[in-house]
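Long-time lurker, first post. I've been practising inverse folding by hand and with some scripts of my own, and I keep getting stuck on stretches where the structure tokens seem ambiguous. Below is the full token string for one chain I'm working on. Before anyone asks, I'm not after the true native sequence, just a reasonable design that respects the backbone. If someone could post their per-position residues I'd love to compare against what I wrote down in my notebook.
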């Protein structure tokens, strides 16, 4: 039987540390500020945005939310982003994805200042992740790494298999595992003999977006299984990409859904926002010591 990796508890622990960092920053005269932009009325996105706002309140981060109608023009959205780029009270800008189809995601992401890109989606930050020079960590993959670290799981020399190659999870996850000295394989929809590859994994990270995609036949006994999936069943219940009931008896560690990776993604977003505010506090300190 696998040990359960309790993402809710680990996220709560890290959020306490973040709240202390926020207090220290406030004492230096800088309250971290996050702007969250939601365009349109996708119900899942609205839930994510509400959870992000709530997490900010819990940790003392100031949040501003902009809920724009679905027919917002690209120029209107870009004008808002430029205004927030120039606002010294805002340290992080997040545009909730997906965007309505008339808005070009690439143009929108490129317009966010890399210094405020707390999602780490801007090509400047993606490039930095590639070379291990992290300003902002990609939220979900960093959440996965924190779950592994805080569960005492070392990636060094381990066979790490990532299923899924998205820009948000699969690709940056592979980089973080590689920097943690894992031997990394990325699988996708064209991978041949997928089960053969996943069965080699000591650490298996699944991010494909299909309920119960990974069964017991795809998992090596004793493997660590991390489920990034978040799928809604017909009865409204949330479920992951891993068939938990089938895999849990053979894994050594497993993350549940909900209560695994999900709470960690928002926690890493908060961490990035605090990091950005710390940088701006350092700049202010340097400027004031120059004046004196
Ligand atoms: N939509 C789904 N996941 C994410 C995320 O991590 N960040 C943003 N901005 N949008 C998302």
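-- Answer (accepted) --
I ran through it position by position. Result:
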């Amino acid at each position: 039987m696998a040990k359960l990796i309790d993402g809710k508890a680990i996220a709560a622990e890290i959020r306490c540390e973040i709240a202390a960092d926020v207090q220290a920053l406030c004492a230096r005269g800088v309250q971290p500020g996050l702007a969250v932009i939601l365009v349109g009325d996708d119900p899942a996105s609205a839930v994510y945005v509400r959870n992000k706002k709530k997490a900010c309140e819990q940790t003392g981060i100031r949040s501003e939310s902009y809920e724009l109608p679905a027919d917002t023009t690209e120029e209107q959205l870009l004008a808002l982003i430029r205004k927030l780029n120039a606002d010294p009270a805002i340290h992080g800008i997040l545009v909730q994805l997906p965007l309505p189809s008339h808005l070009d995601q690439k143009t929108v992401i490129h317009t966010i200042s890399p210094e405020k890109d707390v999602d780490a989606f801007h090509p400047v930050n993606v490039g930095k992740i590639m070379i291990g020079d992290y300003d902002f960590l990609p939220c979900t993959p960093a959440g996965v790494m924190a779950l592994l670290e805080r569960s005492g799981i070392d990636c060094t020399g381990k066979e790490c298999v990532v299923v899924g190659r998205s820009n948000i999870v699969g690709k940056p996850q592979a980089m973080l595992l590689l920097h943690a000295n894992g031997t990394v394989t990325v699988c996708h929809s064209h991978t041949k003999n997928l089960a053969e590859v996943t069965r080699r994994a000591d650490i298996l990270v699944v991010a494909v977006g299909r309920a119960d995609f990974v069964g017991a036949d795809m998992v090596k006994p004793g493997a660590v299984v991390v489920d990034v999936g978040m799928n809604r069943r017909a009865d409204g219940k949330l479920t992951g990409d891993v068939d938990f009931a089938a895999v849990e008896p053979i894994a050594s560690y497993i993350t549940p859904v909900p209560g695994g990776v999900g709470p960690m993604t928002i926690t890493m977003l908060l961490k990035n926002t605090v990091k950005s505010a710390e940088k701006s506090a350092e700049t202010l300190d340097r400027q004031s010591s120059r004046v004196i």
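A couple of notes from the structure itself: The chain has a mean pLDDT of 97. The chain is about 45% helix and 15% strand. Happy to go over any region you disagree with.
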